[in-house]
Amino acid sequence: MSISRRTARTVRILGVASASAALALGAAGNALACDIKDFSAEAKCDGGNSVIVVKSTDTSKTPATVTVFLEDKGADAKKIGEQPIQGATTITFAEDWKPDAVYRIHVKTADNSRFKVDADIKGNLTAPATACKTEKPTEEPTDSTTPSQPETTTPAPSESAPESEEAPSQEASSAPSASESTNAPAGSENNAPSPAVGDSNLAETGADSNTGMIAGIAAALVVVGGGAVFFGMRRRGANSNR
Which end of the chain has fewer surrounding CB within 10 Å, N or C? Predict the structure, then answer.
């Protein structure tokens, strides 16, 4: 049975279309597959903080775990940490990296995942040659006001202290002056006018020779007055009996 040219051409067209579809499906399958090439890492500064950022462009959304190691002479010196990652996203590791430090980033997919990845990102990560500059903390307004409080409060006790110190000094200065005036000797200048004061007191109280005469006259007048009263009353009584 012979095949016509028309049929042969149709079969040929169908074969080419099938091959093209297969290639397209294969390419699409490879594009959705998870591969180590889908991951990259970078050491950078984030607001003055040193960090390591791992980026994934995996469109298959295969769950995986990223582990970061600090390298020293080609060997793992320290495990920085590990974080899960899935799909096209980025994760950040807080790491105070030193200039030119070398890190190894390992990616491993889950055991039950369709696509298997268990490898390091090609080429170890090398930190920049310049470290991150730390930002200076902003000064709070309370810091500027708190030191001023001791300056306003400290002078108050210092002003009252001299007043309390001056009071005893005045009392001390007044106490000796009183004792000096009371304990002064009899022959000092402070007691010089005392004889004059004594003479005046004797004159005022009548301690001279005129005092006895005045007292005698007063006694005689009292006796005469008493006798006159006695005789007067007696005379009045005799007249009343007649």
Answer: N
